[in-house]
Design goal:
Layout lengths: L9 H12 L5 H8 L3 H14 L17 E9 L4 H9 L4 E6 L6 E7 L2 H12 L4 E8 L10 H8 L3
Antiparallel strand pairs: 1-3, 1-4, 2-3
Length: about 160
């Protein structure tokens, strides 16, 4: 488990929830809506952006870029070449998320592709990376729940 030294406190969470409701809100609008000083909003946003806010690109739907197919690829990696294999996997643009895991596989990669033929090309490229021993692919049929953090922000805003 990764610990974050600067955890989001209830006020940070309230600011982020207000920004989630209106992503184009100015700091002045946020301060008025929340009843706190504009300088406080600016300072809090600057602080959380340093450790908690991810890039804007993570909000883009891969399907809008021509990659409607999503698959999860479990990858077994040679322990002696683990770092190089991970770097090789990260170099593939279609690998959009990757986690080191326990269990039968060493890595779990979220991969996007144009279609199944393209997915086959991507997984074949993955197997050519030095240190990658084997893979197992599961295609996503439907996304029932996209990544969501709002319920956790609500809990944090409530002090929980």
């Amino acid at each position: 488990m990764m610990l974050i030294m600067n955890a989001i406190d209830p006020l940070d969470a309230r600011i982020l929830l207000a920004l989630d409701d209106d992503p184009e809100a100015t700091t002045l609008a946020l301060s008025r809506r929340l009843g706190i000083a504009r300088n406080t909003v600016q300072a809090r946003l600057r602080r959380v952006s340093a450790y908690a806010l991810r890039s804007f690109a993570q909000r883009i739907d891969p399907a809008a870029l021509g990659y409607p197919l999503v698959a999860f690829v479990s990858v077994s990696i040679s322990q002696s070449e683990g770092a190089a294999a991970a770097q090789g996997l990260m170099a593939l643009p279609e690998v959009i998320e990757m986690h080191a895991t326990t269990g039968d596989a060493d890595m779990l990669a979220k991969v996007v592709a144009r279609d199944t033929a393209h997915l086959h090309e991507v997984t074949t490229a993955m197997l050519k990376i030095p240190g990658v021993q084997r893979s197992s692919t599961a295609i996503s049929l439907a996304e029932h729940l996209p990544t969501r953090l709002r319920p956790l922000l609500v809990r944090a805003a409530e002090g929980g």
